[in-house]
Amino acid sequence: MLQVNDVHAGYGNLKILRGVDMSISDGGIVTLLGGNGTGKSTLLKAISGLIPLMKGQITFDGLDISKLKPHERVRLGIVQVTQAKEAYPAMSVEENLVLGAYTRKDREAIKVDLERVYDFFPVLRERRKQMSGTLSGGEVQMLVIGRGMMAKPKMLMLDEPSAALAPKVVLEIFANINRIAKSGVTILIVEQNVRMALILAQYGYIIRDGIILIEGNADMLIKDPAVKESFLGGSVADVSRGLNKK
Amino acid sequence: MAFDLNSLLAFIIFGVTIGVVYGIVALGISLIYSGLDIVHFAHGEMYMFGAFFGLVLAENVGLPYPVALVGAMIITAVVGMLVERVFYRRLTRAGGGYTVAGMGMIICGFGMSVAMVNVAYFIWGAEAEPFRANLDYIPRLQFPGDIEVPESYVLTAIISVILMFTLHYFLRYTKPGLAVRAVAHNKDIAYLMGINVPLMISLIFGVACALAAAAGVLIGPMQSVQVEMGYLMLMKAFAAAVVGGFGSLPGAIIGGIMVGVFENLGAAYISASHKDIYAFLLLILVLMIKPSGLFGVEAKVKA
Ligand SMILES: Nc1ncnc2c1ncn2[C@@H]1O[C@H](COP(=O)(O)OP(=O)(O)OP(=O)(O)O)[C@@H](O)[C@H]1O
Ligand SMILES: [Mg+2]
Q: Rounded to two decimals, what is the model's pTM?
């Protein structure tokens, strides 16, 4: 589905990504892990088109999208939810969600999808008329994920959806990410919460200093001594149990 | 001058009408500011160009005044969009972008203002042109106490109200309006929502310049059309925008009305020869009491 070939990108003259290769196939959840400032968000921005490539190529469903503008990539089904958790504060929850469907013309299906988002995140239904500026951090995270769903993505990229949220909320959000994936949307998720991400995902990439250091199946990465050493602490079992309960 | 209630009322009515026109120009400045994070210093020249286009369409082409007004709005919108695409947008690529950091944009705006004045000299000359619009079909308004409001003022009031409500409806209830608001808040997020951000930026510019043109065509018959007219209008509209709270659209209109009324009263009761100072007096007064302006939202700070 998505091929990233030798991608170099950054900001102005500052090069952050120094030859990233990635290959994501249809369906399932892929996670992108790495320490702070290693280029995770930068890679997502290169894929969504918010920053131009200095070198390399990105193809989606066989189509070279390297030169396309972000809104054109959205139309192809590539949707990014940014790390900034930014909703439009002066618009209601529902207006935000409807804006997520901006590129779509199928009004009836949009209504169905709106109900689906409300089923996934019932608190959003309760707050549908509320200005999104008044939401809590967890609610905003649900809103921006829901807004991403409204675009009817083929691939949904999530940038640290668990950041700064209470464990209970994180579990709810992860369970819903799993549901979105089950419905046939490919997910690329950036996480700091490495254990949970590797439990959720089937495949993982680890990035350091703008290049992919290790990649592999999630159950393999979680046992990898190098990964364990640099990222993992605590027990995998706790989280596993938490996720399964949902 | 002896004080009497009727003339006070008259000054207020004229002040409000002129003020609404300041407000309309300020609306465009605010729209560009909230959408693109730049203060457009060549906006007075868009107003001047609009006035000339209206004049040419009405006098030389012979179109009825309302048609000339719409025509001038469209032509000026196109000119504005071209200027933005060809000159301003290049600068945004150099970094700083449409952000407060883009100091280059401010300088470019000033340069554009000078360039447009010179282009206008070249085309229309330095003479002030009277704008004799045929407005016989518009009724004059009679107020008690012998106050008569001329047609051009009545028309200005009507058209201004139409423009304000149209803009409000557009931003509030239409899909491109929603997209414009999204772009104004955050361009990256808007992009990721599938909004064609460059197109919306053009649209914002076009609408803002069309509003300036409308103001020019409305002021034309009251005063005259002249190459240097943009500078003072920019200053007044700027004062209006700041008084109302920079970036606030309702604030721009209210600020405009306040400037217009204040200026008329000052001219009537203090001294008419310093008419153009009162706007800035009001500006300073308001800023002393409420630095963010009357309807100011807190200053935008962008990362
Ligand atoms: N807009 C920008 N302009 C210049 N440099 C930037 C910009 N955004 C990020 N950077 C730099 O690029 C590098 C990589 O940033 P990036 O946001 O991709 O990191 P990250 O892996 O997502 O980190 P985190 O886990 O903290 O989100 C950092 O050194 C950062 O300072
Ligand atoms: Mg990041």
A: 0.85
